[in-house]
Amino acid sequence: MTIINEMRTDFLACPENEAFARMVVSAFLLPLNPTLEQLGDVKTSVSEAVTNAIVHGYKRMGGTVRLKATLSDQGELTVDVIDNGCGIPDVEKARTPFFTTESGEERSGMGFTVMESFMDEVSVCSEVGKGTTVRMRKRIGAPAMPVARRA
After folding, report:
1. What region does 16 belong to: left with phi over 0, alpha with psi -120 to 50, or beta?
2. Whole-prediction pTM value?
3. How many CA atoms lie less than 13 Å away from 73 in the CB half-sphere?
4. How would you list the strands of the sheet with 3-12, edge to edge?
5. Phi-psi region of 33 (alpha: psi -120 to 50; beta: other; left: phi over 0)
6. What span, in angstroms and rounded, lies between the C-alpha atoms of 84 and 129?
7. Is the dihedral of CA 2, 4, 9, 14 positive or negative?
8. Residues 111-124: what's their mean pLDDT?
9. Residue 113 CB coordination number (10 Å)
10. DSSP label at 85?
């Protein structure tokens, strides 16, 4: 598999930039000619990951979120959402449906569940006091058709 395009952008960890992240990844994804459903899946997943970085990683205290994405010649999109926030003490617990670190707020605790349902693969790497990287993968383009050889 060969990377045919990649991008990286950093933005402030403020709620207004969640929409920015959705639009940037949408524009980046367009060369693969995604369906509306695929586009919606990716945008929703990126939105959840960026919101988690802002609300849970930085506790709304500011910081920088990095959005990285690559496209492969096999039609696979990889998106990384990276923060240098507080980190996640127990990643498996955080990935449990309905778990949230925000008490008293209207948080559903479904961010990772949503990401996992819309993307083909989601991995989380986190270190307390250092930050979190959420990597998501989704196949967008159809695999290339093999060329028939004449006998």
Report:
1. alpha
2. 0.84
3. 6
4. 3-12, 64-72, 76-83, 131-139, 121-127
5. left
6. 8
7. negative
8. 90
9. 17
10. S
Ramachandran sector of residue 68 (left: φ over 0; alpha: ψ -120 to 50; beta: rest): beta
pLDDT recorded at residue 105:
55
Within 66-135, residue ranges assigned H as helices are 91-94, 111-118
Give the number of other CB atoms < 10 A from CB of residue 62.
11
Sorted by sequence, the CB contacts under 8 Å of residue 129 that are 6+ apart come out as 86, 87
Q: Could you tell me if 30 and 38 are in contact, meaning their C-beta atoms sit under 8 angstroms apart?
A: no
- Tokens representing 114 are 């949503």
Q: Measured between alpha carbons, how far is 17 from 11 in angstroms, rounded to an integer?
A: 7
The Cα–Cα gap between 104 and 14 comes to 20
pLDDT of residue 149: 52
d(CA 4, CA 13): 29
Residues marked as catalytic: 48, 52, 107
